[in-house]
Each structure stands twice: as C-alpha cells, then as structure tokens.
Predict the 3D structure of the following.
Amino acid sequence: MVDLFTPAYDAAHEGAVDCPCTVVQQAGAICFRVAPNKTPEVLLVASSRNGRWGVPKGRIEKGETSASAAAREAMEETGVRGRVSHQAFGSFAYTKDRANIAFLLSIHLLEVQEMLTEFPERHSRRVKWVPLEIAVREVSRPQLRTLLLKVAANMQAVCDRHCPTTAGVFAGSPSLLLK
C-alpha cells in the first residue's frame, strides 16, 4: 500500500526555495467530503488577492503545528471544521508578486464534518464545493494539482486509513476519479 503521508512533492528536499529571500512557513488544507452519490468533493476558495481558485492556507503562527494551522485556516476562510491529518500530505514552495518572499506550504487533508454559517472571512471569500476531478482542473497552482491527483489516485486508501466516516465508500470502484 502507498504511504499516503509521504509528500508527493517536497519543496524542502528539492531545493525549491533557492533565492536570497525570506521564507514564510504556511499550512493549508485539502478539505473534502463525499457527496450523497458517493462522489468525492473538494472545497475550493478564491484568493482574496486575485480570485484564483485554491485551498484555504495561511501562515503558521508561533507555537502552532502545521496541522492546527491548516484546520484554523480552513475554518477562518471557508467555515469548515473536521478531522485533519497530523502529517502533511505534501508540500511545495511558491512566490507571489514580490520576489523577495517565498512561501513554503505544507498541505494537510481535512475530512469536513461541520460547516459553519458564521466564520471570520465569510464576506470576503468565495467558496464552492466541486467534484475532485473538477478541482484538479480549476486550481491555479500546478503543485496543488499534483497533490489533488495523488488524492484522486488513492482516494479509497485515504478514506479507509484516515476517514472513518467514509471508509469503504469507494470499494470496488478504484478508477472512479480517473475517468
């Protein structure tokens, strides 16, 4: 069985942050649920800066683990709570418009168990649930696309191992997401 918490892309080991710049540690979450028709869905959030689709993410605060930061960012940006993986599912580095800051983003999986109607960024964020295969096409960062493809390829194992409420949902349909 594939070790689901071995990073698909690990920026720290690839030398991806190769610049004379400040490195900011961030955490994010691939928030997912299983729709009534057994289709896995991912919650996408639009960037407040440019409107592009991605996942909730933000800085890791002092004394916070990346898992707790990922859960906090998911709640603040999208109003979801749930079960978050303790280890990062993957990581990658990216920059924004300012070339002197690089962001090292650790991505966790978050099985959504609750959706809040009131949350801090509800008036400044657009969010939408989409089937996993559509999320792969709509996210703006190629590295995030790679991680979503890894989730899709291993959805049954991900659910069986880490998500008790969705364990066994995809049994007998391993290619469900790879149509």
User: Anything to note?
Assistant: The chain is about 25% helix and 30% strand.
